[in-house]
Amino acid sequence: MSQQKKGKAEFDTSTAIKEIEEKKEAQRLKRVMREKEKLRLKKEEEEGERLAEQERRLRFFEDERYFRLSLVDSIVTLSQEVEQLRKSMESIKEMTEDAIELAVCLGDSDHHGLDEIRFKYKGYS
């Protein structure tokens, strides 16, 4: 009987050792899976951050492009307004010269005063 008990004890011991080894392997596999999951999540987070940074840069460049286009549009508009003002000034200059000539033609007796107006108008004062 002692042989049977000894055999059973050896069987129980080897079974217990196998069970412990299987549990250790299962725990190791769980650890490996957790680590893999952590790495995957970290990678996803880094990818998300990278994509967010790319999106911020893209928005910045789009804003910069919009700003530059607005600036160019403003410059063109101002240029057109300056040209219109120049034409208006030229027209005013011509009308003023016509008015002076008309006053001279009407025989104003104060020719000295008209000469002074012409002198100031032409920018010599």
Structure commentary:
The structure is a single chain. The chain has 125 residues and is mainly α. It has one domain. The chain has two helices and no strands. Helix 1 runs antiparallel to helix 2. The chain starts with a helix and ends with a helix.
How many domains? The number is: 1
Shape: rod-shaped
Beta-strand percentage range: under 5%
Largest sheet: none
Number of strands: 0
Query: Which structural class should the secondary elements be placed in?
Result: mainly alpha
Model regions low in confidence, pLDDT < 50 over at least 5 residues: none
In percent, how helical is the residue content?
Answer: over 70%
- First CA to last CA: what distance? 139 Å
Radius of gyration (CA) equals 49 Å
Mean pLDDT: 83
Order of helices and strands: HH
Please, how many helices?
Answer: 2
Coiled coil: 22-95
Protein name: Nucleotide exchange factor GrpE
Organism: Cyanobium usitatum str. Tous
Keywords: Coiled coil
Keywords summarizing the entry:
coiled coil; single chain; 125 residues; 2 helices; Nucleotide exchange factor GrpE; mainly alpha
Task: Summarize the structure in short.
The chain is mostly helical and 125 residues long. The protein has 2 helices and no strands.
